[in-house]
Amino acid sequence: MTTFPLLQLPLVAMEHVLCMMSPFELIDVSLASSRAKRCVKNFTRTQQIISTSFDNSHHSITFQIKRMSWRYAIKMNESHASRYKCVNQLARIHFKTDTELIIKVSEKPLKEIIKWFDYAREVLNCKIDDVSLDLGYPSSENRETIDWIAAQNKTMNNMEILNDLGESYDHLNEDLKYIMKRIHVSGRFNLEIEKYKDDFRMEIPGKPAYLCILNAQFIDYEQLLKLKSPVIILQNSILTSQEINQFLRSWISCETHFELEAIEISVSDPDAMIEIIDLPHEKTNDPKIVKAFGGYPHYHQVKNEIFTIKRSDGKKRASVNIDRLWYGRSLFLIVH
């Protein structure tokens, strides 16, 4: 095998070669010797931070640079590894993504992926800023994962929390609260837990730019007033029509949600709009507003009446529409 004298090159030439390497290749080079590791570290410190995501259900780390990504995953056996490889290949074809995939096998995948990434972040300019956490694992493992992530970065750009692996409700509620204490979200936060204990209550800290809660039965009216996100999606909500009406009144009077851009709240009563819109309003079918409902974040095709309300300072208006979708009836609101 022909060797390449990388470390003997002049600095500029060596950095030019390193610049053409992928994160995986840089890690491989760093493992060659202590001098190679030092050269890689010195080079990556001058580069842009690599966006990195972690998924505990697949025990995977993904590096993202522009439209290219590199994923390192660890599975418990060869069967799981083969299945994961097939799923990634199908996703790559369907979504037309360009992802390089490395899969390893270990009886302790969490321990090994943590060990691998601890070395990777030692030599690369990277940090986890996007996480997907499945709380179906034992509480001790969940908290070990949460502490490991929080030690690197306490504010995520994006976070997804779910419970696909089992119905571990005994510890799930407390583990979820533990995450909220240790990690905040600045960008997109999807909370996809389907079931909680009957008396479960929890506050959402910080101000995620986008907050989507699949089961919002723990969000009462007082909690709604504390939510600071510009975009809020509350499915399976327990809020009554009267409380939603009161929320709109507080927005009109500039008492709350001054930075609100859009909100969706599920409603159970087919006649909810009568009570919800019992406040000063005007009906509209403005094509611009109809088009706005069809865009981010609702992507909702308006089929019935739109009601528009005006904030008391005269600077903003909000348009409201209620419709029944495949997952139930919801109120959609956009601020303009």
TrEMBL record:
Which InterPro entries does this UniProt record tie to the protein?
F-box_dom, F-box_Sdz-33
Span-the-membrane segments of this chain are none
The lineage's top-level taxon is Eukaryota
Q: Which residues form the F-box domain?
A: 3-49
This protein is called F-box domain-containing protein
| Organism annotation | Caenorhabditis tropicalis
Taxonomic lineage of the native organism: Eukaryota, Metazoa, Ecdysozoa, Nematoda, Chromadorea
